[in-house]
Description:
Radius of gyration: 22 Å
Strand content: under 5%
Shape: elongated
Structural class: mainly alpha
Number of strands: 2
Helix content: 40-55%
Order of helices and strands: HEHHHEHHHHHHH
Distance between the termini: 47 Å
Amino acid sequence: MAKTGLTFYKAETTRFRDRKIRKLVKNFGCAGFAVYEFLLSEIYGDQGCFVAWDEDTVFDVAEYFGIKESRVIEIVNYCAAVGLYDKELLRCGRILTSRAIQERYIEACIVMKRKNIGIPAVARIPEDSNKIPEETIKILEETEKFRNLAHETNVTQPNVTQPNVTAREVCFPFADDSPTMGVVRDTVSDSELISAIQAWIRQMYDAGKRVDVVAMGLHLKDLVAISTNSTIQREAVNAAIQGEWKRFYDPRKPKSQTDGKKNAVGDISGKNYDRDFVTGEKIR
């Protein structure tokens, strides 16, 4: 069987000027770039122009760098969102590739004088697939706050048993059609309360805090535990907005200054609400 992978690949000296790479490094630091480069090596070294995005691939990357699998998924989601990987193939086929990756692969095969050069059907990119990343980049340039998108989607969450499940598009957690707001509307019927929660989610997002569907479910559980009265619930949410708290408290009870500092939005510990995206377990 003819070898499809490459022993080396071309890397442009201008890649660090690429806005997509700069955004990746800005949001995820050196770990983001390292994960992207590791996966490029896997892509070129194995199939030559793509790699399957599954649980084994996630583990290999996480184990190599000693980081959480949830972090790897978050980085790959972001890479797809800014156009470093083709978003549609990642969403529908769980394949990591891009037009640029495939062009470099074809170029390398020509230089090596390989015969029967081609892109496998499973990795072929639709003609209009680049439209989605371009639109996403415009959103990024307008907001400059794109750190938590992976947790608002199951676009790239590896799922070996259900490979053909169609996932939701990447979206902001406070958007009307986001999975997080879907959980809110499924649980809450009061329109004013829904609007207040949406405003709180936006505040949390702007402060760099993650509010995914799992965390939102826990927050709503806390809200119901405070009271089943929508008026009191609204007061609790509004108090959280005013105090910039990352969770809800009973507005009828005094809140100590210590609690206020401990649970402010700026506090990134969040052990009760930060969960591993793959396992669903609390991150400690």
